[in-house]
Fold:
Amino acid sequence: MIITVPSIYPEGCKIVVIGEAPGREEENWSKCPRCACEQDSSGQCRTCHQAIVLPASQGWVGAAGRCLQKACKVAGLDWSKIGRSNVAKRRPFADSNKFEEAFWETIEEPIYTKTGKLAKRGHKITRKTKELLEYESELAQELRTHNPNLVVAAGNHALEAVTGLTGITNYRGSIVGSQREIHRADGHTFKVLAVEHPSYIIRGNPADFWVLARDLQKAKREAVFPEIRRTPWKAESNPNQDATSIYAHFKTIASNPEIKWTLDVETRAGTLACYAVGYRVPRSHELVAVCVPIQTTSGAYWRPEQEVELWEALNETARANPFLCNQNVEYDIYYLLRYGVEPSGIYMDTMLAHALLFPELPKSLDFLCSWYLDDVVYYKGEGRNWSEGDRDPELWEYNCKDAAFTLQCVEAIDMELHKRGWWERYHGKPN
Structure:
């Protein structure tokens, strides 16, 4: 007997949590009041054979749901005001929770030769079943009907169904838009926050409970408004062999030695490809990142005398402003020293400062962005295959993102250090 578990949308809810499919407890979560046994298919207790009057089935009442409820409580969210739904409205199988086996199918498409003949072997493809497509259509309709400000996609299947993206480990903590097929009545996309499914936490990953709670704190902030908001910033990633604007940025950083700035290098095959600096413009506080190409896929970017002048200018800047910040600064310093750049001071290594605050958590920049920043979408996957073909502009843009987002992490970490009273513990006493 297939039991359908409906969605629940409390009146006026601003947040809805989407899972992949109901589990065993969601199918039939009421117990016999006499012996605490479950009912059988006829509606009677399996042990004492008394009739059981069951409340309506609902999602997120099993072990994963209880974990989610605890995380919501830690995050300051009222569980009774949160919508609950799943991509599929039934349990995949009676004896398992294998979503792919139940809702994806493998078919063989015919292949024709150049002469128009049918090949002996076809091409196997895996696709969603008709049932799953109908469930996704139903999900889109219920979202349009109830119009929440924020959709929390728990797990990879929910993320893929709502946004079209895959890789929950990467996108966890990111705020993204829903795919074209799932949109509001006014045509705009839904705002979606990706989180790990609580079932992952209860299956041997208890430390990630606090990551989920932190993500749900972000959900509480984002649920106040329906639109996606990004912090504006400016990137200059293609100087066209004209270093005029680069020198202007260096001069601003050097002449304002009290401002914090970042410097991030990118390498290709062990060779320095480019570096980017990021800072906030004094008075306007505009966030700016500028990339300086060094080596492209086709050769050196600058004439030798131009490159020498640029390295000398960077060295003067680094010696004039001691508030250099970086992620894993030891790696970048290795390359800077090889080119004669000697910073006069390091204000913060975000990796080490974060390790002081949260020693049990990952230390990569993508994790720091998801932990401290509300508006940065996972982008570290862009850093692949730059050695193939002319993809230099993509590398330069990526380099600017590292510089800009690292500076935002510096600002957020400093706030956390002040909040805990640990600012002097990391930075030392001010002079």
Q: What stands out?
A: The longest strand covers residues 271-280. The chain has a mean pLDDT of 89. The chain is about 35% helix and 15% strand.
